[in-house]
Amino acid sequence: MNGIIEAKSLFKTYRRGREEIHALKNVDFQVNKGEFVSIIGPSGSGKTALLNVLGCLDVPSHGSLRLNGTETNGLKESDLVKVRRENIGFVFQQFYLMPTLTARENIELPLLFSKKNGNKNRIDDVLQMVGLSDRGDHLPSQLSGGEMQRVAIGRALINDPRIILADEPTGNLDSATSQMIFDLFRDLNRKGLTLVIVTHNLDLARQAQKMYTLRDGQIVGCEDLTCVLGRSDIKVQQEVV
Amino acid sequence: MNFLTLAAKNLLRRRGRTFLTVLGVAIAITVLFSLLSLNSGYEKELTKEMGSLGVHILAVPKGCPYEAASLILHGGVIPKYLTATDLKNVSSIEGIGLATPMLMQQFIRQDAKTGKDVPHVVFGIKIDEVRELKPWWKVQGRYFTDEESNVMLVGRGLADKENLTVGSILPAGPFKNFTIIGILDRTGDQDDQFHFVPLAEAQRVFNKTGMLTTIAVKVEDLSQIEKVSEEMEKIPDIQVVTMTQIMGTIMNLAGSARSLLLTVIIIALIISAFGIINTLLMSVNERTREFGMMKAIGASGLDIGKMVLAETVFITIAGGAIGTVTAIVGSSLIEGFVKGMLPFAPRGTMVSLSPELIGFAMAFSVILGLICGLYPAFISSRLSPMEAIRGGVE
């Protein structure tokens, strides 16, 4: 295997009182460098659980996960922080912007944690990349939903990650704005960034190169969509059991 | 941007709550700062006042406790007496600049307005000698001479309370028919409440001919106090009390008042500390999702803990600064309150402000912040990012 994300036999079980919830059941999942992958599935199918495990926000109950060649299984929290910092940018449905920080400061926030403070040019570049060059000094309350999500994407990009993981990034946006966000994702992908996006929106999901379907904690389908995107290396739909 | 900017901006999100927490700390620091400044000021002012009294040594009858000396300063009565021989012996000691005899007595008179019995203190004095000891005395009317009879000086406080004016004649009591010939200008100390009559008159009225309560001594050279007091100790019947000893006694008496204040402060600080911890824990609980997001974008537990701790220290520094300024600005108010609780309050201001004290109050605020912030910081740093994002932390 030579994927940037290589997950093998992932299990994730949560406990709620006496009840055990099997969020992931024996999931094999691979994303190659530079791929744009979407994950769809009904509510409770384990999409977010998978994304959180892939992003080292959560540890699997069983199974192995390699990120950019590093086995994450058994790593201490401090090492997982490093892996996250160096490899992953997160985008959430609720944006989670700090209301008292301007767009620029929100984007700058991860630099504070990665001790790369003060890289002003990098912040300008990112603001330009997400199309907010002229909105940098605005507070989140002065921005539209789409702009807030762009700030969140900028924040995910600032540490120059190898992978962007997005959990329902358009869940709070109208369809036109959602499309703009997806266009931005595709732009970033064209520049070589690997993207894994969880979404309910099938239309948007189909704009990725590969679309996985999750149901009851298992991957039940993987559709290669490169033909739709006009690529020559067309693959037929595969069913994964 | 750095952690301090981030912490400050976080606090501004909850202005009301931040303000109230700062206020809690400020009140605690105000009380702490006031007590400390009053404590050092009390000692300093007391020393100054003792010096300005002009009296360096008091001779009291043997067998009187040290408290007798402070009683004398207050106008209390002691049941033993010295004699003219004692005065002669004391005066003959080398190094003594002035030794003046005093007879202090109390009498009870019914208050004209309330009808209650009120104790009055009378000093029989040698006027010229006392004026030498208390050069700041000024009088409305005139001073008496040692030979006059049926004349009296009163303190301004007493005169105001009893509606006495120069020329008033006392209608009743042991000094019936005495004329007020002078009212002393306000001195701010116990003298404001006393009656003063010529020594011989006091001895006559109270039937204490030849008896003295105390001999106030002024030495020629301050460095000779120890030597002179040792010489005085040799005289039988006399107990010598230096002003240093009196101060020690007064400081002991003041100690109990200080202990009470200190207890109040400790309670105030504990309440304030729990208030801060509670506020921070609430804030941490409300922000679990935010902390989860921060961890997702690369923050370590230590980063989150540092941020929470920085917020706490901000609160306590602000509280410390406001508290210190309030204590300085409101010092006269607090001083008035504290003076009422002390057994012997000096005339001048008791508040003593020093850069060291301000530094201590601020350092204390920071330490308070660090202590209070530690637990919430620990809790927030231990949040699992996943649990935090789901907001599932208890």
Element string of chain A (H = helix, E = strand): EEEHEEHEHHHEHEHEE
Largest sheet of chain A: 6 strands, mixed
Shape of chain A: globular
CATH architecture of chain A: 3-Layer(aba) Sandwich
Could you estimate the helical fraction of the residues of chain B in percent?
A: 55-70%
Write structural notes for this entry.
- The complex is a heterodimer of chains A (241) and B (394).
- Chain A has helices at 47-54, 77-87, 103-113, 120-129, 145-157, 175-190, 202-205, and strands at residues 5-16, 19-31, 36-40, 62-67, 70-71, 88-91, 163-167, 194-198, 210-215, 218-224.
- In chain A, helix 4 crosses helix 5 (145-157) and helix 5 (145-157) packs parallel to helix 6 (175-190).
- Chain A is 30% helix and 27% strand.
- Chain A contains 7 helices and 10 strands.
- Chain A is of the alpha/beta class.
- Chain A has a single domain, classed as 3-Layer(aba) Sandwich (Rossmann fold), CATH 3.40.50.300.
- Chain B is an alpha+beta fold and 394 residues long.
- Chain B folds into 2 domains: 3-49 and 254-390, no CATH class; 63-236, no CATH class.
- Chain B has 14 helices and 11 strands.
- Chain B has helices at 3-13, 15-53, 66-74, 84-91, 127-133, 156-162, 199-205, 225-233, 243-286, 288-296, 301-329, 331-341, 355-381, 385-390, and strands at residues 57-61, 82-83, 96-110, 117-125, 139-141, 151-154, 179-184, 195-198, 211-212, 214-219, 238-242.
- At the A-B interface, helix 2 and helix 3 of A face helix 1, helix 10 and helix 14 of B.
